Amino acid sequence: MNADERAALLDALPPRQREIIRLRLVVGLSAQETADRLGMAPSAVRMAQHRALDRLRRQLPVRDEPGTTA
């Protein structure tokens, strides 16, 4: 998967989830710092991050596990 394909997956996220992923994983803010910035509860930030990552995982192509044969 190239950078453009990864960017397209991120762009497909709802805006709030995309912003949470950016703040948490790219900028490196804590859940509390992200919550403060977005006016949310830290638990809501963690839940939105979980849902966004779950959505991204489901959209990724399936890769073979190392050491297994097809």
From TrEMBL:
Keyword Transcription regulation: yes
Alphabetical list of CDD domains matching this protein: Sigma70_r4
Pfam families with a match to the protein in the record: Sigma70_r4
Coiled coil: none
KW Phosphoprotein (keyword) present: no
Keywords per UniProt: DNA-binding, Sigma factor, Transcription, Transcription regulation
Record-given protein name: Sigma-70 family RNA polymerase sigma factor
